[in-house]
Amino acid sequence: MAEATAPAAPPAGGAGLRDVVALPSSITSIENGVLSYRGINIDELADNASFEEVIHLLWHERLPTQHELETMRGQLAANADLPQGLIDVMKSFPRRTTPMEGLRTAVSALAMFDAESEDMSDAANQRKAIRLQGQMASIVAAYERIRNDREPIPPRPELSLAANFLYMLRGILPDPLSVRALDKAFTLHADHELNASTFCARVAAATLTDMHSAVTAAICALKGPLHGGANEQVMKMLNEIGHTDRVESYIRNKLQNKEKVMGFGHAVYKDGDPRAKHLREMSRQLGKLTSQENWYKMSVMIEELVTGAKGLKPNVDFYSASVYHYLNISSDLFTPIFAISRCSGWLAHVLEQYANNKLIRPRAEYVGPVDQHYVAIEKR
Length: 380
Ligand code: COA
Description:
CATH topology of the largest domain: Citrate Synthase, domain 1
Helix content: 55-70%
Largest sheet: 3 strands, antiparallel
Strand content: under 5%
Radius of gyration: 22 Å
Bound molecules: coenzyme A
Order of helices and strands: EEEHHHHHHHHHHHHHHHH
CATH architecture of the largest domain: Orthogonal Bundle
Structural class: mainly alpha
């Protein structure tokens, strides 16, 4: 059989569908390097909004009133409980199951415990969105406890999503600064137009599959090191370097070997990711507060070296690594935390897709051999 020939030129629209506009959306825009949710600049939201306000904005097209905000916060907390059957499933995972693998399988399994999972009415989908958003945080916290031989802790109805997550993780009420830092990180990661995981969610939703399936598809895409997995890799790199003295040789070596430095570069932003500066500032503040400035200082040195040598700027994943580390969160929870936040964006896109659906079915540019014939097996 003849080998498939390599493509002579990138397919129409460029490799990786760069700059291809796949569908209309009124959720998030990236224009001239400015990121906005429903037309509001991310800088304003990062400085002023709570994550629950952002969820309302993404799902309902506008910021909530005080009453709507309280209702949403209450509903998220009240629906964040996990069915005991799901906890039993998680307890049966092999010990080596990573938190991201656990999340992927638990969200898929959650559908089987949700009486409305196959109800595609708008009202049921709105209810499922609330449940899924709250339960994502509960799953990540519960599995972290299970793998450390501790019992999961149920959510408290009076807490925000960020506070509840930290509470369910540790079993003690979190301090306000940690809650504010995590809440802000949630806002910054909430949505990002047609990134790989969101596109996956929309492709799945466009087949009119159920919401849990669409979110499971998105988690699978987020898991990869070129997408949500990058923040964990950044922490791995910081741990490998260990000290500011070793930053320069480590990074120069990596660049010389043409290895990628995780947390740098972006498929859309060529002049810097607008979210990175907020996380950088958070990392600086938390470093000072915890008297562990090493992680922040190493990160700044890496930024100077990579930007100086390659012109590449840090993306959202770079400083989020040291921020989560300062919050005393283990590095294999970084991507699941990204998933908790991005779930709000996935759900907004799934709801938008359902509301005006068209099956997503692009074409491939065929670059293989032509005019081949079947050859009998004994003659091959
Ligand atoms: N470190 C070192 N070099 C990098 C780099 C990085 N993080 N990101 C891109 N480059 C280089 C590539 O090696 C390539 O160089 P070459 O032209 O000499 O071969 C060039 O920049 C273009 O890279 P490419 O991967 O094609 O860019 P892209 O815009 O398609 O990819 C990413 C964007 C995000 C996939 C890419 O920058 C990357 O892999 N970054 C690291 C992973 C990461 O942080 N992901 C999170 C994204 S939010």
